[in-house]
Amino acid sequence: MSFSDPSYSPSAMIAFLHRHNLGYMAKHLEEYGIGGGQIAFLMALYHQDGLYQEELARMFLVNRATAARAVQKLASKGYVERVQDHSDKRALRVYLTEKGLELQEIVMKISAMRRKKLFTGFSDEEQATFIKLLAKMVNNVCEEMWDESTK
What we know:
Radius of gyration: 17 Å
Distance between the termini: 41 Å
Structural class: mainly alpha
Strand order of the largest sheet: 1-3-2
Number of domains: 2
Order of helices and strands: HHEHHEEHH
Strand content: 5-15%
Number of strands: 3
């Protein structure tokens, strides 16, 4: 398979990388009972613990039920806990447990290995440019979503 063929859209290439990356991470985290559907949620909590469950849903553009299932799977394995928010009793905050924090080094190491492979052959400047351009694409989509939601 060669994605150098111009008939492949950037979206198809990004989707391919996303699916492959989830599979890679899930394979390496299988022994911990973490699947592809939970990895992004766990990584987000490593960056900012105590997010609202609804924030996680918005962050990954999934519905609340999908986010609830992913968080429940992580909770059932003992990696996170859901805590009722003190100011809004309907809202749930998601916190890493001690077990979840102990797994952080392993998850980050696997993620770093993956990133290293993805960027093989890229200069530091090319990596920075690629990330900047991807961020620009994401912002374009977010602006579009915002425009559509305010109509």
